[in-house]
Design a protein that fits this description.
Shape: globular
CATH architecture: 3-Layer(aba) Sandwich
Structural class: alpha/beta
Helix content: 40-55%
Distance between the termini: 45 Å
Number of domains: 1
CATH class: Alpha Beta
Low-confidence stretches: none
Largest sheet: 5 strands, parallel
Strand content: 15-25%
Order of helices and strands: EHEHEHEHEHH
Mean pLDDT: 97
Strand order of the largest sheet: 2-1-3-4-5
CATH topology: Rossmann fold
Bound molecules: 5-O-phosphono-beta-D-ribofuranose
Number of helices: 6
């Protein structure tokens, strides 16, 4: 297996059904990634170690999903200057609004790129990570461009269908 370029971290295994979408999206683009569980509040030491070890192994981008008072992405961003992309998850009674605010409202100085709540956010986090990596990888940039072309073709197909063609 190739060395992961992206580490996907989630706060709990209950986040896996959503964060799996990020891993699947990266797989379609041939971007090697790994999935990990670590909690900012339940396992702070493990979280710190996980980031240091990932950076040491050459991981370039972190995708971080967490729900409720979602501080995991911010805590990971505090431990590294590699890009951190946050995915707010909707597992709590506030349906992800809490996680969205926690992820997107980082005070100035420690950036987290916040995506949308839930599966759309997980998918876009993967695409955004790939876009960062593609800055130095023309073949990956071409795979991303092909993905856009396919989306455009998909709209044409839907248009044909609704017009009855
Ligand atoms: C967050 O609390 C996790 O990211 C998860 O979304 C949420 C609930 O975790 P569990 O109680 O299911 O472990 O830290």
């Amino acid at each position: 297996m190739s060395t992961p370029l992206v580490t996907i971290v989630m706060g709990s295994d209950s986040d896996l059904p959503v964060m799996q979408v990020a891993a699947e999206t990266l797989a379609t683009l041939d971007v090697p990634c790994e999935l990990r569980v670590s909690s900012a509040h339940r396992s702070p030491e493990k979280t710190r170690r996980l980031v240091a070890e990932a950076v040491e192994r050459g991981v370039r981008v972190f995708i971080v999903g967490a729900g409720a008072a979602a501080h995991l992405a911010g805590v990971i961003a505090a431990e590294t200057t590699r890009p951190v992309i946050g995915v707010p998850l909707d597992g709590s009674p506030l349906k992800g609004i809490d996680a969205l605010y926690s992820t997107v409202m980082m005070p100035g100085g420690i950036p987290v790129a916040s995506m949308a709540i839930g599966k759309a956010g997980a998918k876009n986090a993967a695409l955004f990570a790939a876009e960062i990596l593609a800055l130095h990888d023309p073949a990956l940039a071409e795979r991303l461009a092909e993905d856009r072309r396919q989306q455009t073709a998909g709209v044409e197909e839907k248009d044909r269908k609704v017009r009855g063609g």
